[in-house]
Amino acid sequence: MLNLHKLVNQVDIMYKRLIYIIILILVFASCKKKDDFSKEFNIPPDSVLYDGELAISEAAMNDIVQNVSSPVEMAALIKSLGVPFSKDYLATTDYVDNYNTSFKKALGLGVFGADLGYLNMYNKTSSVIDYISAIKTLADGIHVGQFFDFTTLKRLATNNQNLDSLMYISVQNFNQMDRYLRENRRSSLSSLIVAGIWIESMYLVGEVARKSPSTELSEKIGEQKIIMSNLMILLKNYEKDPDFKEIIEELEEIQALYKNVIITYEKGEPEAVEEDGMLVIKQNDKQFIEISNELMVKIINKTAAVRNKIIQL
Amino acid sequence: MRNYYVIVALFAIFILNNNSAKAQSGQELVDLCNIIADDATYLKDFQVKLDAAKPGEEKPNMKFSVVLSKSTQYRFSICNSKDYPGKAIISLYDNNRLLGTNYVVATGKNYPSFDFKCQSTGVYHIFIDFKEGEQGLAVVLLSFVQKL
Asked: Side-chain half-sphere of B55: how many Cα atoms within 13 Å?
């Protein structure tokens, strides 16, 4: 009788221990899942470049606009016009160590990011390695290097294989850096990267337009009036910072020139059609961009001056 | 007896880890969506996770603003996580008008992607919600197709 009682007690203890173990495992497992999710969508905070009062909150800034400038689209336009590749347009990576502040590193990241887009568009993999190395150095410098998959990009570039993947991974890595910075109260650096991409892309289009003028390039330069106004909203939020103030003043000179670019619209009704099983939405608006050659040259010259100041360190 | 506890614990960890490994990550959805986008060049991805709509309330949604350029054909591709019931609906707006959506109410057809032939450079707004306000996780990919 005593033995039976002892056995019942042992079984009871065993079950209790088993339940405790399962509860503990469930608690740990749920914590792990939460952590995984946070790795996907929220990333831990880091240092900030500008921590002062903002005219527009960081949350509202995220709401403003996502892809102010895209290196892919500018490079695609240049290539679509049949303009040959020229390495002369690119910023040198020789002095990457001279980008010695977070401000310069973020701007430089944007500049080299735009150049990488141009190189990728023309499949110039032999030069890509210099640029991805420079980008990795600068990205590490502002603690976002973990998002730049240097090893894979280098392998793809070295083997001259899967060039679509090279473009895809590099653009996505830039987006991941941007997202991380925005989500971790470091939007000032994100804004600088965007500014760097815009300035270098404008420089590339401008230099191509000097040598191979075309209506498409003039329009592309003219329409930047709209894009620039969004870029300036991003940058002006940090104008209390002396470095930001300086670049804002430089860009304001370009913006002043843009006042003479006239953009008019003719509204049309959008239509949705199915083409080969694919839904296609056609926007039937018309947009007219008026920019004189003289004004375009002034904008190109001023942009080149701002860009050269950034890369001449 | 101690071995018995260890075996149970290891088995439970295996089961739980195995289940979590099957959950689709945001990155997996982006990669999948890039395949759906076909030969278009990836530009941007938008990851959306929304709870189910509460009774009597509007469907929750997320808004993203992007700059799109004149004379350019873009592609919006949608990938829904298999771990959630919701099917994402994209609505593309200019400043004040709905330009199009991947869900055609008249036919009830839900397209996994659509192209947008942009004729005016400017800021456009993408609203993403889930059909019938169901809980969902999705990735919307914006890609560049060609200059027009």
From this structure: 0
Q: Which of A142, A64, A66, A134 is nearest to A102 (CA)?
A: A142
Q: What is the pLDDT of residues A93-106, one digit of tens each?
A: 998 999 989 999 99
Tokens of B18: 């195995």
Distance from CA of B118 to the nearest CA of A (A): 6
pLDDT digits (tens, 9 = 90+) for A228-276: 998 998 899 898 899 999 999 999 999 999 999 999 999 999 999 988 8
Dihedral-angle region of residue B44 (phi above 0 means left; psi in -120 to 50 means alpha; beta otherwise): beta
* CATH class, B2-147 region: mainly beta
List b or e across A24-53, with b for residues whose CB sees 16 or more CB atoms inside 10 angstroms: ebeeebeeeeeeeeeebeebeeeebbbeee
Give CA–CA dist A92/A115, Å, rounded. 10
- Interacting residues of B128 by C-beta distance below 8 A, sequence separation 6+: B46, B48, B61, B62, B63, B64, B88, B89, B90, B91, B138, B140
Domain boundaries along the sequence of chain A: 57-254+296-311
Q: Which residue has the higher pLDDT, A279 or A28?
A: A279
Q: Indicate yes or no: CB of B67 within 8 angstroms of CB of A67.
A: yes
Q: Which residue in B41, B74, B127 has the most chain A C-beta atoms within 10 A of its own C-beta, making it the best mutation to test that interface?
A: B41
pLDDT digit string, tens, across residues B66-111: 999 999 999 999 999 999 999 999 999 998 899 999 998 888 888 9
B2 touches chain A (CB under 8 A): no
Chain B residue closest in CA terms to A35? B20
Neighbouring-strand partners of residue B137: B49
Q: Point out which residues pair with A290 in neighbouring strands.
A: A262
Q: Is the pLDDT of residue A300 over 70?
A: yes
Beta bridge partner(s), residue A273: A280
B1 touches chain A (CB under 8 A): yes
The whole-angstrom distance between B121's CA and the closest CA on chain A is: 7
User: Residue B82, Cβ neighbours under 10 Å: how many?
Assistant: 11
Which ipTM value was assigned to this complex?
A: 0.82
